[in-house]
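Exam review. A common question shows you a sequence with its structure tokens and asks you to describe the fold in words. Practice with the pair below. Do the first one on your own.
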Amino acid sequence: MGGATQEPSTKEEMPENKFYPEMDQEEPPTGRSQTKYVPSIMSETPIGRSQTKYEPSIMSETPIEYEPSIKSGTPITHGEKDNIELLGEVYHLVQGGALTQDFSILTQTRTPVLGNTMLHIAARYGRNEIVDRVANQAPKLLFMRNKNNDTALHVAARAGHIPTVKKLLEAYNNFQRPEIVKEWAEFMHWNQSHGFNEENYVSGLIDLMKLKNEQGNNVLHEAMMSKEANNIFQVFEPYVAENRQRESLSGSCYKAALNITNKANQSVLYLAVEAGHKETVILILDKCPHNVKPKGISPLVPAIMNRDQARNLNRYKIARKFISRGSMAYEYVKSLTNDIIGNIYVYMTDMLTAILDKKQEWIHVKDTHGRLPLHYAASTSYHEGVVHLLNKCKSCSNQKDKHGFFPLHLASHGGNVEVVKELLKYCPDPTEMLDECGRNILHIAAKGGKYEVVLYILLTPQLEGMINQKDKDGNTPLHLASKWCHPKIVYALTWDDRVNVSLINHRTETALDIVNGVLQSQKEKPSLRQAKRDKL
């Protein structure tokens, strides 16, 4: 019954330029940051202490005046809300202990940090009998939210206790009880004198389902981040009555799965794809309105990115534990891990296929950065995904994002030659595929140190038009390789007879001038040993 305290689920927003941060960086790393002078440990002025009036220290002769204390003998009491003994009794009860206090008093307790009620705690532990008893004796707690703005529904869904979610919905729906109707009226600001009907409670349940906490998550968001997400929609199915807007609770859930996002700009469908809940994804796609496009980040993105996470998985992490047992154990675990990664590849490719088979038009949905799913597939070297997306729409290969990058630029920066080859099939003239800085894919590869891509371009006669092409600053690919200190690429370019090493940029620099400047700056930098000697 016990369990660790579960913090509210959060999903961070995707970084501004996650997949190609170096492409936005216009100056090469210098090796040493220029920071403000920090006083040494021997400095006369203590670090971090402002020059304010003298404050007596703990050893000061000056007597310190204290606030008058509570008079001796005065009893110190707390209300039920802050009584730690009563709170301990609540946890004792929900963890299977016997009740030793008045139950109605326990319903008044709150946890000190998050402000959870007894109902929140029971929902987190999945104690349905206590949830039922609280709903009967203290129905007001059904509508109370903690300091994270969670209802008990949020907490139960986050913990993956779908039966508890069902039990709570039954309590909310018990409109035969005047106490429940009264709490609903206060929650929804209904005028009870106008009567109460089926439309009211359907609207109320829909609003309750859409309530957001501090992370912007509703009940469905929280459920998708648990392991039991596949069953959450089935809980809402029995509530099929419609309100005046012809909305049923179950129908509203499927619509909300696409058009309600949290603060990380993630829809419920996005989270379902990210968590790998394939059955739930297919259910949402089948039940959602035909012409509705998903809001927030495209659900195709996690189908692409999760596959990339599997590719980057450290397959030797587990195997290291078996090294001491001999090479056979090491090889066995390594092959086992490879199989797991391969299965994830297949699974996420199936997820991508499942979405596009039902919603092919979503291939054109752009995110806030103007990126299509093809941009993400290209940036992560997802060759199978790139092929699949191009089979659906070849024109996506000629779409720029808000940073001016084509999918081909991102593929070049990713360094996967096969993806570059695939995208070049739909590019009649690569010299026209320029980003906002006027750079072609050879510029990008040279700057990013992608030797295999550079070598492929040099060995492909149809691509030689990019070799001496200049960007808006007059830099050729050789200039950028020199500036960003990629000697292997500089060597490959300078030994190619087609490369003009005498070309100058807008600062009248040749590539050799840049190399000399880099070497000179390195000579001027003191070594670590010299820097320590100078400091002494």
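Now try the second one, then compare your answer with the model answer below.
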Amino acid sequence: MSDFRRACVLHQPLFFKNDVFTHIKNPKKDLNIDHENISINSKAYHANLLYTRWNSHRTKQIYSQRLGISFDKMIHARDRYSITHLNNKHIYRKKLTNFSIERSHNPRVSKAQEIHFDRAKRRIFHKKEHNLLDLEHHKIATAQRYRFMFTKSQFVLRLIKHLLYNHGLHHRNYKFWTPFFGRSGKRIRTTTFDDTSSPVLNSTVAPYNLIPNMFIPYKYRNIIPKEPLYTDEGVYIVPEDAILHGTSFNRVNIRKYTAFTLTNGDHFHYEMTEFKDQYLESDDDNTKSRIDMQMNNFSAQFKDIFKRHIANIP
């Protein structure tokens, strides 16, 4: 409906059904699209269209007849730094620039456009109190927050929120074109010569890489180990830092006590085994009494050694 004409809610369905969508060509026939595919406005179709506009640096001029303003729109893609370091997953965003006021030549329409534009400015700029010391800067920040254009020296960035990097940056992970790795690179042709003097060993396994081929936020990349954890046989590879495990200053005394206990325990077992063998091999009662006395004395001395060692531990 042109010339600012409107219809009531009861007549709008009949108006659009009978008077608006009657002389429209079949889009499937014009675009030469397979009739079996019912929906041509799929996500892949829309994403490929945005990729084409971004790749061709196309600028589209937008004109609002209601507000009497015009501006340019371009499609920008996220750079690699903002994706990997700042964790911004949006693929594209719109940049609105080159704002200008273009009123209608009809005085009545021009007056209505001015009223509508002033109303939009009041709705945006009267949400919060302004800083009187820097009113212009505050207006630009507020307009950027609400994606509103009102001056030529301003630009607005609007995210396209339904296209995200959810599966990394590689184009094979998506069913549509993406800005990064969207096109295949040039193939380099090389000439190889067969060496008959010695066999040539060609590696059939890719170099070891623990980092998977997928998008990983930058803050989690330090967690991934740089070296393999297991051998080809499934044996765990002990890290070099594990050799120093338990060697801190707080555990020195515990390690000394453990080493002393194990060493003297082996010595006690060895000596008592010899006494036991001598006692069992002897048939003389006097010899058995002497060996039994030696065993008791050795056991008492060993207890005293343990007590003195424990007393010296700080």
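Model answer, second protein: The chain has eight helices and four strands. Helices lie at 12-20, 27-31, 43-55, 80-84, 107-125, 135-145, 252-281, 285-312. Full marks require stating both points clearly.
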